[in-house]
Amino acid sequence: MIDDLLVRPLEPSDTGEAAALWWRSRHADGAQLPAAIHTAEQVATWFADVLLPDGQTWVALDDGRIVAVLTLDGDDLDQLYVAPEAAGQGIGSALVDLAKDLRPGGLALWTFQSNTRAQSFYSQHGFREVRRTDGAANEERAPDVRMVWGRHPEADLT
Question: The whole model's pTM is what?
Answer without folding.
Answer: 0.90
